[in-house]
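seq:
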Amino acid sequence: MKKAVIILSIACSPFGLLAQDLHFSQVDQTPLLVNPAQTGSESQIRAGINYRNQWKSVASPFQTMAAGFDARLQKSKRRSDGFFALGLQVYNDQTGDLSIRTSQVSLSGAYHLSLGRNSTIGLGIYAGFGQRSIDGNNGRWGNQYNGLAYDPSILNGEPQPTAQFSFKDAGAGTLYRYRKNNAGSQSWVVHSATAGLGFFHVNRPFYSYLANENERLWMRYTIFGSAEISMKNTKTALVPLFFYQQQKSALECVYGASYRYYLKGSLSGKSASNNFLSFGLYNRFKDAMVGKVGFQMNQYQLNLSYDFTISGLSDLAKTQGAFELSFCYLFGK
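struct:
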């Protein structure tokens, strides 16, 4: 039974065994993990932290923590040619009874070229260093059962995995961003829009506990798009979102929207405000529904979300999905 639980604990990952990357449902709150070209795209300075706890009712829960920081190297001006930006992303992911731990730190850089008063197109790259470790002491294997019960004194006969290994990583991405401060009381106007394509692990780094040089991490690519649309009442806005990523045959698709209510002023014009409440509902195709609530007060933003499993794993997980928390600081948006 223990072996079955371990296998289930690993297989319940949204990407399963075919892809090894970590996962957040709040994809709009992890910009550097979605596309390195988002470095510096959203504000003059952005700093954020993320925490995710998944499958708490199935053996050892998956726990993921991440922190990111990015900043523009010079202030963007409406008629300037563009701007450079740098970013730093770190994360730690621990899964299952074997405490499979993945840690990585990455440095990203991007250049955003102005296409006019309201649009930019950006190109970003990243380079990182990661490490993966495993604790094999908690493993139980089929040949360690003596016919009646599990006997840890019996040799498992399995190849002894390397306790840890390190790898180098690199990737790139491109991004288009539109933003307009719509003056006056306009209805159903696109206030901002973002669309981009990212590529991760383009160097196909070595990725094996068994020192097998043929085991390489598959390249992952992402497609991301979102917009902010002011509604008839300019105190409200609709924020649709689409995210797709694929790594070999493993894929994920998230789509949905959030509703924003601005606490004072409006979305645009002289009374524009950064203070709002938001409520969102998203679907991760054939996996989960994600409910999200959040608020922004001046430069600070907090979001809470929960994944409600709707796949065949819902019975095994006893309806306990995943809890996620994000907090970020935005300056000079």
